[in-house]
TrEMBL record, chain A:
<keyword id="KW-1003">Cell membrane</keyword>
<dbReference type="InterPro" id="IPR000515">
    <property type="entry name" value="MetI-like"/>
</dbReference>
<comment type="similarity">
    <text>Belongs to the binding-protein-dependent transport system permease family. CysTW subfamily.</text>
</comment>
<feature type="transmembrane region" description="Helical">
    <location>
        <begin position="202"/>
        <end position="226"/>
    </location>
</feature>
<keyword id="KW-0813">Transport</keyword>
<keyword id="KW-0472">Membrane</keyword>
<feature type="transmembrane region" description="Helical">
    <location>
        <begin position="246"/>
        <end position="267"/>
    </location>
</feature>
<protein>
    <submittedName>
        <fullName>ABC transporter permease</fullName>
    </submittedName>
</protein>
<feature type="domain" description="ABC transmembrane type-1">
    <location>
        <begin position="62"/>
        <end position="267"/>
    </location>
</feature>
<feature type="transmembrane region" description="Helical">
    <location>
        <begin position="61"/>
        <end position="84"/>
    </location>
</feature>
<feature type="transmembrane region" description="Helical">
    <location>
        <begin position="96"/>
        <end position="121"/>
    </location>
</feature>
<dbReference type="InterPro" id="IPR035906">
    <property type="entry name" value="MetI-like_sf"/>
</dbReference>
<feature type="transmembrane region" description="Helical">
    <location>
        <begin position="141"/>
        <end position="162"/>
    </location>
</feature>
<keyword id="KW-1133">Transmembrane helix</keyword>
<dbReference type="Pfam" id="PF00528">
    <property type="entry name" value="BPD_transp_1"/>
</dbReference>
<keyword id="KW-0812">Transmembrane</keyword>
């Protein structure tokens, strides 16, 4: 069936039909249901949204989420840049080894990495022991704080950043750097005025990805974060699991979705989406 | 390159590696709760994992669901990809957008949708329900990989076959499919992994009957009660390491063999990672871009 249709240029819709039907039934309709619930549960109207906008607690959670996502993006950039730079400047062999490491981290389940941070930051973990050894008495409680979830998210999302940066840095023509040098620029000047601007697209790509993923991050903040400083996704989960408040949860989900789409749209206008997915 | 930036780069590499490595000794630890360094070592929790139905059943469920997701995704995505890549038609842009849209959704948003929608259909807590949800989430990845492969396909091969008298069906079966086989394999693999790793949606819609491994892991980490989690983590990490190293080692072995003829086995002090240039953009990377967190 496929090949006959392959030739007949009039039948693309036939080929698309099964998937289109599937996505309508099992993607658009459920999504629409969330939108519906946000304005019909428990009663018709925009009460849920009004509640969201009027309650300082919800605003705090959204603000918290944006700040955390921003912090994670900056953290990934600050840590990822030196690593990507090292990879771009090293011998192919070292670069391959480092890429192998990044790829391994990338493919390891979020849950595994979250669990690893639980061990590292736990009260009986190595970091607490180290701080105690250094004379911090009593050692601070690291787990279930904003610090622990932010740190773990930086670790979990840094592969996205490194890969974005590296793919751009590798294409920077070394001749440009030599040219700047021969014209008398100091090493720092070469880096700041030539290399950094040329690697900017990678920075924007990586930061956008990390920021966007972080906005809707559920697993790690719920498991490692402070229950008092939830992020949006975690609060949505709580609304459903504990209060069965579908209306409020849906309204928050719609706002979260809108935020994500706005980030995407801004990126699309400036750079084009194709580049983001690679 | 100067020393300081180099040093920072290696420190970041250590920062990436350390948490991955720490789960391995933890899995052999005798400690009943989180404790590092471990007070002693044994294999007891491995035995516990393989003999405890509360862990083996979710593992089996996850494998079934991931396999079902892979099949359904490929069945739906393959024809659609041919349509979008090879034809210009009204609504092509919309089709393109729709096929990639599930990728931009925070999973928690869809989790609510599926929780109530599949609940109405009485599909929550069933394998089919989870397969359906995971298929919707896997479509973009499979589509992107397959369409990238299909775009690079030289249609002259098909024309040649048909001009030699092959029917379209034979052409597809004997020319198109074999050439695209790696693309198919990779997209199927991604659909599988996407489903096997997916946590948030599964957390809300897979009940006791179809509990997936990530859901069980999530609950276990949340309760902090079950040291078996370190065993599962180690096994998953080991699977990733194996899957990534295998092609690298294979390539290294092959290049060594072809370089030094038959006498190379004598030297065999393990294939190094020589000869594999860093894969520029990791082919796996962009496709995993999902707001799955």
């Amino acid at each position: 069936m496929i090949p006959t249709a392959l030739r007949g240029a009039s039948k693309p819709w036939l080929l698309l039909l099964p998937l289109a039907l599937f996505l309508c039934t099992f993607f658009l309709v459920p999504l629409g249901q969330v939108a519906m619930m946000s304005v019909t549960e428990p009663e018709p109207g925009f009460g849920n949204y009004a509640h969201l906008a009027g309650d300082a607690l919800y605003l705090q959670v959204f603000l918290n989420t944006f700040l955390t996502a921003f912090g994670v993006a900056v953290g990934c950039l600050l840590l990822g840049y030196p690593l990507a730079y090292l990879m771009a400047q090293s011998s192919p062999r070292v670069a391959a080894l480092l890429m192998l490491l990044v790829t391994m981290s990338f493919w390891t389940s979020f849950l595994v990495r979250t669990y690893a941070w639980m061990v590292l930051l736990g009260n009986n973990g190595p970091l607490t022991a180290l701080l105690g050894f250094l004379g911090w008495d009593p050692p601070p409680h690291l787990l279930f704080t904003r610090f622990s979830s932010t740190l773990a998210m930086v670790h979990i999302l840094i592969p996205y950043m490194v890969m974005s940066l590296y793919s751009v840095m590798k294409r920077i023509d070394p001749a440009l750097l030599r040219a700047a040098e021969s014209l008398g620029a100091k090493p720092w000047g070469v880096f700041r005025q030539v290399y950094l601007p040329l690697s900017a697209p990678g920075m924007v790509n990586g930061a956008t990805l990390v920021f966007m993923i972080c906005l809707g991050f559920y697993v790690t903040p719920v498991l490692l974060g402070s229950p008092q400083e939830q992020m949006v996704a975690g609060l949505i989960g709580t609304q459903i699991e504990e209060f069965l408040d579908f209306g409020q949860a849906s309204a928050m989900a719609m706002v979260l979705l809108a935020s994500t789409l706005i980030v995407l749209a801004v990126y699309h206008r400036r750079f084009g989406l194709d580049r983001l997915w690679g | 390159m100067r020393l300081l930036p180099r040093l920072i780069g290696f420190l970041v590499a250590a920062f990436i590696a350390a948490p991955l490595l720490i789960v391995v000794p933890m899995s052999f630890s005798t400690a009943p709760s989180l404790e590092f360094p471990p007070p002693g070592y044994w294999l007891g929790y491995y035995a516990a994992y393989f003999s405890d139905e509360r862990w083996t059943q979710p593992t089996i469920n996850s494998l079934i669901i991931a396999f079902g997701t892979m099949l359904l995704t490929m069945l739906l995505v393959t024809p659609a990809t041919f349509a979008v890549v090879r034809h210009r038609f009204l609504g092509r842009g919309i089709a393109n957008l729709m096929l990639t849209m599930p990728m931009a959704m925070p999973h928690i948003v869809l989790a609510i949708g599926y929780y109530s929608y599949l609940g109405d259909l009485r599909l929550t807590q069933t394998h089919i329900g989870v397969i359906i949800a995971h298929t919707a989430l896997s479509v973009p990845v499979a589509f992107l990989i397959l369409s990238a492969n299909l775009k690079g396909f030289d249609r002259n091969l098909e024309r040649a076959a048909m001009s030699l008298g092959a029917t379209p069906l034979r052409t597809f079966w004997h020319v198109t499919l074999p050439v695209l086989r790696p693309g198919f394999a990779i997209s199927a693999l991604f659909a599988f992994i996407q489903s096997f790793d997916e946590t948030v949606v599964a957390l809300f819609i897979s009940g006791r009957e179809s509990e997936t491994l990530p859901r069980k892991m999530f609950e276990s980490i949340r309760m902090q009660a079950d040291p078996v989690i370190s065993v599962v983590s180690t096994l998953l990490f080991a699977a990733v390491v194996l899957a990534i190293l295998m092609p690298v080692l294979w390539k290294a072995v092959q290049s060594r063999r072809s370089r030094s003829g038959s006498g190379s086995a004598a030297r065999g002090n393990g294939p190094a990672i020589t000869g594999t240039a860093p894969s520029d953009t990791n082919p796996c990377a962009p496709a995993r871009v999902q707001l799955e967190a």
